[in-house]
Amino acid sequence: MPRYPQGQPIRLSTSVRDVAGALVDPGDITLTVQKPDGTNLPVYDYNPGAIVRDSVGAFHNDVPTTDLTLLGHYSYKWVATGTGAGVSFSNFEVFDPLDVAVLSLQDAKDHLNIAQATTTYDAEISSKIATIQASLEKMTGGPILTRAVTERVEVGSGYRTLCVRQRPLVAVTTITDVSSGVALSTSDLDVDTNAGIIRRKLELPFLGRGPYFTVVYTAGWGVAVPAAMNEAARIILEHLWQTQHGPWQRPSIGGEEEVTLPGWGFAIPNRAAELLAPFAVEAYV
């Protein structure tokens, strides 16, 4: 799925063909874009002039930044009427350009020997980077870079443990009893960062109605992407790139064994797997 940074206009294109497959101009063509909140943008129409005809049967529309204010998943459809009547559809995502990724677009293009001035593949590369990061975070059990997390947690036996899902756990900010809305003291916590388990010192219980507590905490591997993760991301990006674009632009050094790790929906080169081994959940739980 193409991904675009917020603040950038997006060009959507389509072609219209008749039943024989020849390009034709329709009687009219409209573009409808649905925003992440489920509402639609005002329909773009060819006849009023919003949609541009590039050539016979070829059209595009530039969606302005004022129509792309929400982050998230957008869906759209082209509807042609008259000659070549039909519907085509697709989707894209708008993301916050300030979100820190495991691998920057600039570094990714350098690694693939793509000139920075060439923007043809930017959306595709960004999508692959997002896929790699999501798989990394699933494998490691939490965010790559330290960030705040708010989570509803059920207290353990004897009201003595709270186990959060995102790891490694860095620090606990607040713990609030859901039933009463009362915030608990965090002055005597004993935090198991690797296992994500929060206890009170002297094995004292968490005092509250319970059994559910809202825990605000930070989790992640620090304020910078670990070097081994960054290098693994480059290797995996190269691997994914070759599946669609053929051999890489640098001389090949031969084939390599591929493995499928827990949390990954596709096989990755063994070199990358070895770099990521210390970060897997199994390595530190």
Structural class: alpha+beta
Low-confidence segments, given as residue ranges, are: none
**Overall domain count:** 3
| Shape field | globular
Distance between the termini: 34 Å
Order of helices and strands: EEEEEEEEHHEEEEEEEHEEHH
Q: How helical, in percent, are the residues?
A: 10-25%
Q: What this model shows, in words?
A:
- By secondary structure, the chain is of the alpha+beta class.
- It folds into 3 domains: 3-95, Sandwich (Immunoglobulin-like); 105-142 and 224-284, no CATH class; 147-219.
- Helices cover 20% and strands 32% of the residues.
- The chain contains 5 helices and 17 strands.
- The chain has helices spanning 105-111, 122-140, 227-245, 270-276, 281-284; strands spanning 3-5, 10-15, 28-34, 44-45, 52-55, 58-63, 72-81, 86-95, 147-154, 161-163, 169-177, 183-184, 189-192, 197-200, 212-219, 258-259, 268-269.
- A 5-stranded mixed beta sheet has the order 1-8-7-3-4. Strands 9-15-11-12 form a 4-stranded antiparallel beta sheet, with no helix packed on it. Strands 2-6-5 form a 3-stranded antiparallel beta sheet, with no helix packed on it.
- A hairpin with a 2-residue loop joins β5 and β6 (58-63).
- α2 (122-140) packs across α3 and α3 packs antiparallel against α4 (270-276).
- The longest helix is centred in the middle third of the chain and has 19 residues, at 122-140.
- The two termini are 34 Å apart.
- The model has no long low-confidence stretch (mean pLDDT 90).
